[in-house]
Amino acid sequence: MRALLVDRSRPGNLRLGDVADPEPAPHQALVRVHATSLNFGEAKHVLAEAPEGSVPGWDAAGVVERAAVDGSGPPIGTPVVTLASDGAWAELRAVDTAWLGTVPAGADLGTIATIPVAGASALRALRRLGPLLGRRVLITGATGGVGRYAVQLARRAGAHVIASTGDPATHGAGLRALGAHEVVGGPEDLTAHVDGVVDMVGGLQLIKAYARLAEHGTLVSVGRATDTPEQFPYGAFSGAPEAHDRSITSFFLLRCTNVGPDLTLLADLVSQGDLSPQITWRATWDKAAEAVTALLDRTVHGKAVLDIA
């Protein structure tokens, strides 16, 4: 099969090449990939650390070519959305059926490919905050893929949504259209404490966001857009009277379990138009190096999709 292989001698650290077809385990389906969505973490970290000649990629949507022999998962011909730690940037992918969601017939699989990391991370992180109806929720790094899904899902859940972006003048109108009630330049611009934070930035912004948590508030650390370490000032965890019992929790989607039903739910919402995937860059996979560059240069605000030609 054809696949995008790690090759650090090439632009974007990738080249199209031929590799053996994957051989699925009994609990895996073999999927014919139609499209994949790239994530900033893949462009920045995976391509720098993955072995030469390996096939990276977390997100992919396609059609079941061979059903799992143990009887789990959907039958041949079913459109699906898939998630795994590698193997998405190829014509064929073997994927655990627990990490596979079904897709409504006729849905654009390039659109659906945006869901796994961005959509499922947003959904799981917001669930970690607990019931959202009437609560104030801050989404940092809101113009990224996870952030845009988080804004929409938090609004659907009844939260008062505050989106944080480094350029409110440019991105404010778009974030409000997705459901944000307020758009701010950073946690320091908040006019009141918040009940929950989904943080995609890390570093100093995480520290500032934690300081703005209300009593019993929770911050879920999802992303690392900055390399700045989190060095909290003395007394940050002293339990001040106005903000007692606050918590920070880490998050890593690929360590979660039973993600398949969430992928199915999100695929239904996207295909019905209830969630916007916010695709801002799309091309065939021979343009993969351009997509990687655009992600690293932060010129992609939303999702980048590669159609498997």
From TrEMBL:
Entry protein name: Zinc-binding dehydrogenase
Matches recorded under Pfam families: ADH_N, ADH_zinc_N_2
Residue ranges annotated for the Enoyl reductase (ER) domain, each copy included: 9-306
UniProt source species: Streptomyces flavochromogenes
